[in-house]
Amino acid sequence: MRIVPGSTTAVGKQAIQAENEKGRVEYPGFKVLSYAPEYRNIQIENGWACEWGEHEAQYKLSPEAPPVRLRLKGFDVLRRQRDGSWKFAVLILNE
């Protein structure tokens, strides 16, 4: 699940993939210039992790576009996979 203010909530892998693909089609020249998460708290228990913090990023929608700076607060829930990796279960962002 991905929850972002001003957007519809994307529930499930297919909905999130469709949302991502729509963005790639609308902005084929999109480029992340920097991304720096700063986590304030991380809790891990029984194969689940909750983390919250701030995310600062800079990106361009196209090669000609000016850079855009973004600072978000976020809360994430992740689940440990069988192979030991972590996968997002819930992602909530707020400006």
Please give the count of helices: 1
Secondary-structure class: mainly beta
Mean pLDDT: 94
Number of domains: 1
Write up this protein.
The chain is mainly beta and 95 residues long. It has one domain: Nuclear Transport Factor 2, Chain: A (Roll). The protein is built from one helix and five strands. Strands 1-5-4-3-2 form a five-stranded mixed sheet, with no helix packed on it. β4 and β5 form a beta hairpin. It is globular, with a radius of gyration of 15 Å. The chain starts with a strand and ends with a strand. The mean pLDDT is 94.
Annotate the secondary structure layout.
Layout: E1 2-3, H1 13-26, E2 31-45, E3 48-60, E4 68-80, E5 86-94
Parallel strand pairs: 1-5
Antiparallel strand pairs: 2-3, 3-4, 4-5
Pick out its properties.
5 strands; 95 residues; 15% helix; five-stranded mixed β-sheet; mainly beta; Nuclear Transport Factor 2, Chain: A
